[in-house]
Amino acid sequence: MRVLVVEDEQLLADAVATGLRREAMAVDVVYDGAAALERVEVNDYDVVVLDRDLPLVHGDDVCRRIVELGLSTRVLMLTASGDVSDRVEGLELGADDYLPKPFAFKELVARVRALGRRATAPLPPVLERAGIRLDPNRREVFRDGRQIQLAPKEFAVLEVLMRSEGTVVSAEQLLEKAWDENADPFTNVVRVTVMTLRRKLGEPPVIVTVPGSGYRI
Using CA atoms, how far apart are residues 86 and 66, in angstroms rounded to an integer? Predict the structure, then answer.
């Protein structure tokens, strides 16, 4: 899942981004509304965590623009105000969910994951294919009943492949979904991660390389 965090309190923004990355999400961070508009018009995000009171361009206007663009991106709006009228107004702008500050990080993660599921075609909450069972919420992976410990990026790559339901996923698509905008598109990080993932999943191999196209399970 790829997430954009838009928050002008830099310490909070960076802390949220770090926590979401530990949950195997690819996260970009910006600190004002103008930068947010630039990102959403270029990158494909599943969820935008959007502070309402932003400098340069207000969060309301960012939300309106996402709706105008007709994106599948879901918006979780944050605000320091807990007033019911503010929550209603934010939802009427097109936000998909609303979370007042201060918030519990576990709740933020749960809401982001729920919105991420709504940004894609409906799938079971637990993904199963080729003897692999992947639970995104618990961040657990089993193969034939054996639990497998994966690093966040390995988990993210496996989740993308599982969600593709047997279709081929290119290295570029994996880079887009599992890494943030700082990833070098010319690096071999995808190939190395897939190799490590194959080794951890064990024999017989379940990740198939399709020459010139990408990978599938």
Answer: 19
Higher pLDDT, 110 or 93: 110
The average pLDDT across 185-189 equals 78
- 89 in Cβ contact with 127 (< 8 Å): no
Tokens of 100: 């007042």
Within 8 A by CB and 6+ apart from 12, the residues are: none
Cis peptide preceding 102, ω within 30 of 0: yes
17-67: per-residue pLDDT in tens? 999 999 989 999 999 999 999 999 988 899 999 999 999 999 999 999 998
CB atoms within 10 A of CB 15: 14
The pLDDT assigned to 187 comes to 75
Is the CA virtual torsion 145, 134, 157, 32 positive or negative?
negative
3-state secondary structure of 141: strand
- The single-letter code of the amino acid at 171 is A
Name the token pair of 113: 């994951």
Secondary structure letter of residue 137 according to DSSP: T
Q: What is the DSSP letter of 194?
A: H
